[in-house]
Every structure is written in C-alpha cells, then in structure tokens.
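Session log. Operator J.P. requested a structure for one protein chain; no other inputs attached. Running the standard single-chain path with token output.
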Amino acid sequence: MHPAYSVILFTTASGAGYGLLALLAVFGAAGVLPANTWLGFVGIGLGVALVVAGLLSSTFHLGRPERAVRAFTQWRSSWLAREGVAAVVAFAPIAIFGIGWVFLNDTSGPFAWAGAATAVMAFVTVCCTAMIYASLKTIRQWNNALTLPAYLVLGLATGAILLVTISALFGVYRPAFATLAVVLLALGLAIKLAYWRQIDTERPRSTLGTATGLDRFGEVRLLEMPHTEENFIMREMGYSVARKHARRLRIVAALTLFVVPLALLALALWSGPSLAIAMGILATLSAGVGVAVERWLFFAEATHASMIYYGRAA
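Structure written below.
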C-alpha cells in the first residue's frame, strides 16, 4: 500500500496523544501527580494538541475533506466512523478533567471520574483506529491478530515517554514512570518482532486460482497484464518496498523506537531529576523518529489482494 504521510501523522500523533492523556488521567485521578496548574496545562494541552493534529491530518487523505462529517453517520458498519464518534465523545471527559486540574487544582471526586472516562475513551478510540486496518480482510498484513495490540501498546509507550519528559521538567518525576515506559517499550518490541515474523512467514491467503475460481482446473497463470499503463489501483494498492530496504528500515525502527529509548529510560531510573530531563527529551526524539518509520513500514509492506490480478502474490 502507498504510505500516505497524512495517515502516518494521524496514527502516530493521535496514538501518542491518547496514550499521554490516558496516563495523565489515571495518575492524576489517583493523586500520583499533583494538581498543579502548569503541569496540567502543558500535559493535557500537549495530549490534546497531538490528538487534534492527528485527526485533522487524517482529513487530508480524503478525496473530499469537506464531506468528512458524513462519515459519522456510518458508525453501525464503519470502524472509521466509530473512531470519529469516539474521538468526539472523548473530548467531553477530557475537558472536564482538564478544567478540574488546570483551573480548580482538583483531580478528585467528579474530576477523578472524568479522568477515568478519559482513559476509557482514549482506549476505545485507539482500538477503533487499529480496527480500521485490522478489519480489512483484503490486506493480510493488517488483518492480523497483532495489529490491535501493537497500536495500543505503541500509543501507551510513546505517551509514557512523554510523561517521563513532562514530569521531569516540572520536578514531579518518579522512577515508576520510567519503569512503566521501559515495560511498555519491551512489550512493544516483542509484539512488533512477532508481527514482522508472522507477515514474513504466513503463506498468501489467495492465489490467482482461488481468486478466479479456476484452481480446480490446475495451475492458473497470468497471460498478460490487464492494461499497459499504471493506474490508480497500481499506484495506491500496488506500492511495494524492496525486501532489502524493508530489513534496513525495520532495524532503524527497532533501534530508534525501542532499543535507544529503552537504554535512555533505564538510565533515567538511576539518575537524578536533571539527568532524567535530558534522558526523557532524547528518548522522545528517538521514539518520534522510530514510530514514524515503523508506521511507514506498516503501510508500505502491506499487499492488497487486488494485486493478484497483476501477477503479484498477496
């Protein structure tokens, strides 16, 4: 599949934003983080900014962005519509929790319940985002049991890295934050390695024979291409990345998204507040590069079943 930069920004930015908001809501409501005005303003503001930037960027991939609002009406059958509805609903508890934290310096009582609702809606929204891709049976690399957990864990992991950085900057850093980020990154690496192994070793679900229904007569081969020039389907559905490049990019993604932040945050566990700030900032920058590469590969390595008719295995 052709990797659209708007969709890459959408899935990475919104995932990190929802991950950060969920963690802030849980730790804030539990009293682990103080109800400090500027901490809440920067933390919740950054989370909302990432979510909004991601959601707005997703409209750039639409042929008629001005009609995006019509997608909300299809929530009964479309994961894209369900994601849109969940994203809008999530803003209500986020706003209530943010008002309590920033303006009233209170994250208890009804504001704690709003925090819990924020975490739940963040979880639901990211699940809907993942299911947009995991539900597509025509793309075997996405129609995979590991797609949903990968989206959830990577969203929480990138959010946890941001939490470490923000808490260190405001002097409320706790080693438990870095520990959580390390655990999530290690889990994310395990899931991603298992995902790459599965899509590499899984046999194509469809062949030219099964797609045409002619396999009962023997091997089916393509006589000639359906047409002589490239068309929209070949550009969008038939994009492919060379295996050697994919391997290199996987190494880059594994190092920058998982290994380097893991090492930096492990150092933050044993360091003072000032060093924790530096480790958090470096881990954030590294993970930002890594998650963009990982998500580009998620799209670039996907093969659509329609490519069977152009002589490619799906």
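Operator note: The mean pLDDT is 90.
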